[in-house]
Amino acid sequence: MKITISVLKADIGSIGGHIKPSQKVMEAVRSYVDSQARNLLIDYYLSSTGDDIAILCTHTKGANHPDIHRLAWEAFLAGTEIAKKSGLYGAGQDLLKDAFSGNVKGMGPAVAELEIEERENEAFIFFAADKTDPGAYNLPFYLAFADPMYCSGLILSSRMSQGFKFKVMDVGYVEKNKTIELNVPEDLYDLATLLRDAEKYVIESIYSRATGHQAVAISTQRLHNIAGKYTGKDDPVALVRTQGEFPATGEILAPFNIGHYVAGFMRGSHIGPLMPCRLNTTISYFDGPPVVTGAAFSMKEGKLTEPADVFDHPYWDAVRLDVARKATEIRRQGFCGASMLPYSELEYGGVVEKLQQLEKRFVISD
User: pTM for the complete prediction?
Assistant: First the structure.
């Protein structure tokens, strides 16, 4: 029997700006999911990362099933009503369409889904990031699935040494989904060429070449492509299967110690280091720094264990201190140079409009 793991995430309102959803909003979402779960879901887990709420659920409906997506959409609507009554900031911010159309993709919420044949010991990690975009996963997953310096299993495991297939999306192309498939290690340099531009080329999924089984699913929607204007950073989610034919949990986590620089931070218009944080972490300094959380699960017949917080360990305290230092250093540079996104990626209209006005005042001379 195939099991589908789905995660659907949205920012539907936050206390005091972009900090965290209220308990009342969380309970409204939980109450709605509870009311529908008996007929639709095997199990579910509700969490928040920064100002985003995520519904992780298991079921047998398959990916992109309208009943599952409708459940999440209506749960987010229920939470939005409470957010509006409470005066929360950005109430319903990620719900960009007026009516549900059968699938929440293209409607605002982030979605990642894995439809799998459950292994005897099924282990996976649910990652959620806030104040950044889908390209934030490019470097850590490239290193975890393609670089033996980070993933020794590529050398030590006969199945993993056959490599992985990466499906990469051009998220700047808004007409339809535009993707390319690259095999590593043969296409390693080509893959690196694309993934270096994390604002345009984003890993959508990864597959074992030994078995064909899917290892990774990442939400790839960009909100400003949907809304036509800045509505908030995309705050991507990811599902990653671990162990056996896939990298070990520790190999998946290892690259997050870099605290690599990603797009996002304040107003979605800056560069900042990605900080691996404990579950249900809030947002703070300069509407950041960009954060990622990880909840590891084991699963049997779709029933989930309690989550194991992958970044709740003394080792990551030292990493967080280093990432905080990196965030402070780049913020000391203010608006200048590499600390802010280039013109092509600035998502707040004010600076774009100002530049357009200033362009008219330039004078061409000999």
Answer: 0.95
